[in-house]
Amino acid sequence: MFLGKVIGSVWATQKEVGMENLKLLMVQPIDTEANDQGQIVIAADRIGAGVGEKVIVSRGTPARILFGNNNAPIDAVIVGIVDSFEVADDV
Description:
Largest sheet: 5 strands, mixed, barrel
Helix content: under 10%
Number of strands: 5
Structural class: mainly beta
Distance between the termini: 20 Å
Number of helices: 1
Strand order of the largest sheet: 1-2-3-5-4
Shape: globular
Radius of gyration: 14 Å
Number of domains: 1
CATH class: Mainly Beta
CATH architecture: Beta Barrel
């Protein structure tokens, strides 16, 4: 899993089977100081995240399992909207 910030939406009128009615968002991975970390990921969203929100993203097999189909073409899914977080000073 990683922490990210939703930076946009993706619209696709044609999708693979199992992706119908699925909201896709562009997520920029970030570090604990909200600095960009790595490449933008397109993630499925079923929890209602929006542009500007910090989110938790799960990738790979755990993402597919959430959709009940291990063959679904899903690599990343938003699993939480972050309200706040805290990082210890001595770490």
